[in-house]
Amino acid sequence: MASDVRLDPVDLAILRELQNDARTTNKELAAAVGIAPSTCLDRVARLRSTGVILGTALRVDASALGRPLQALLFIRVQPHRGVLEPFVKHALEQPETRAVFHLTGADDFMVHVAAAGASDLQRLVLDQFTARPEVALVHTTLIFQQWEGGPLLPPTTSS
Amino acid sequence: MASDVRLDPVDLAILRELQNDARTTNKELAAAVGIAPSTCLDRVARLRSTGVILGTALRVDASALGRPLQALLFIRVQPHRGVLEPFVKHALEQPETRAVFHLTGADDFMVHVAAAGASDLQRLVLDQFTARPEVALVHTTLIFQQWEGGPLLPPTTSS
DNA sequence: GGTGAAATTTAGTCGGC
DNA sequence: GCCGACTAAATTTCACC
């Protein structure tokens, strides 16, 4: 549903604009990319239906919500198929979990969490991860600061 | 600007709704949380002005945009103040970069990237990171799959 | 701080090019 | 595929509680 979609320069301009601010009105968006509002509406609808645009997410301040301590948990699980799905499910059920990554390498998973403080993080790691039977090892790293990259756009091909 | 903001149950309901779908109309949102549309507009505006809501981001499919290979780069830099800012700036300037994290522990930074393929990733790591003088070591891990967590909400306090 | 109705802006539809 | 006029629905303002 989302592979090899043809994106012309106008589509790319739309994606760039909306990634800066997904609340941009269709009218402004059309003016910014140089097409009529009705055409712009079609373009965005197509980008949605083809799966290029997956949705719009609210960016919230974790500190303002009382979760100022963010960390990465690197986790090794027992090498059996069938433990992966329950593990991921359990990780996603924790309110502190922001994202889960299944990785190559020595550590099987990385879980990005936002905790209320050191004691909350300690409880999360020990009770919700280390204590689980399929979890072999948890290594915790704190996040000092983080930055978001610019708009995600296709690689520039010289074809 | 964003610390110790008082959030009542209505605010939390608004945040939960909008994190599910940031395009929810104000009318629907008001109905969902049980207040008048105009009141709801005030609430959301306050959440924005107080910095709880930082913005709305478009979620795009990296594969659909021709960047199907995502990876984490763990990077150690020379232990001198003054190298951090230029390094972060350079990392964020790469079109493949999705996010940059400054970490505790042996590795100073983790850079989340989305590449067009193995050769693009190789070029990125070698030419844009390993080649830089302040970079001491780069360790690359591929991402098999990733999941997003649920809505980020304040910890439930029993006060 | 919350509300309901009015005024304004926007999204979304449709026939024609 | 793109445009421009039209309809429907939304946002936003405001006087009042």
UniProtKB/TrEMBL annotation, chains A, B:
PROSITE patterns in the record: HTH_ASNC_2
Keyword terms: DNA-binding, Transcription, Transcription regulation
Record-linked CDD domains: HTH_ARSR
Keyword Transcription regulation: yes
A Pfam family per the record: HTH_24
Highest taxon above the source species: Bacteria
PANTHER family: LEUCINE-RESPONSIVE REGULATORY PROTEIN (PTHR30154), POSSIBLE TRANSCRIPTIONAL REGULATORY PROTEIN (PROBABLY LRP_ASNC-FAMILY) (PTHR30154:SF54)
Name under which the protein is recorded: Lrp/AsnC family transcriptional regulator
Lineage: Bacteria, Bacillati, Actinomycetota, Actinomycetes, Pseudonocardiales
